[in-house]
Amino acid sequence: MNQESPHTVTSLAADLRTLGLVVGDVVMVHSSLRSIGFVAGHVQAVVHALLEVLGPEGTLVVPAHTSYNSDPAGWRNPPVPESWWPVIRAENPGYDRVLSPSRWMGALAESVRTWPGAVRSGHPQVSVAAVGARAAEIVAEHPLADELGDGSPLGAVYRLDGKVLLIGCGHANNTSLHLAEVRQDQPSMCDSAAAVRDADGSVRWVTWSAPETDICDFDEVGAAFEAAGPVVVGRVGDAESRLMSQRALVDFGTAWIAERRSPRL
Fold it and tell me: Distance (Å, rounded) from C-alpha 221 to C-alpha 135?
């Protein structure tokens, strides 16, 4: 360990302000907690630092996806025996905004999801959680078929002229680029299914069709966007971090994908 001293709420808040985060911002955060280095108070301190900088007028937004809540027939990493499928379908407790943990979103996102006052959108696979002044507005609508589009929380952040903050991770983790994907004129479509838990405790399966997503060129899109200049790069703790306008990113990405992405075979 090469740190001269632990990172703290105070030092991380100073780093975030230097990067350009300000009171009242709406910001969607993706992070690698490990990359920040040793923090006194661990992930709790990082969330406190973000909320301190945003103030009561600001809003912290994170992905709270539950990709495990899907039909097991489509599982590939890893697959499960076909004989298990009926049991998994029958015994799935169903998506619950409060109880269902996120997966693969990182410790910071999961901490925000469970933070006092946090609210979460209702999509059973790609939900978003938020804390702050505009949180309820951001998560209020999340249609099944518009899972990552303009009718989703991503679209709400866009309309609010929010920001994206990448802490120790790259554009492959930048969920907002999916909004650029689904804005294409003729996106490829795919079918999905998930279990939903209703207020009375009953569980039902829902199905929908939505634009197919593919992060394979997100790092390339991000690099081109950064080359155009509108990204601030700095450090949050030890983590190389990036702050940008979500609206500028999505507009750039929409045009880039239309011009540069190879059609799927």
Answer: 28
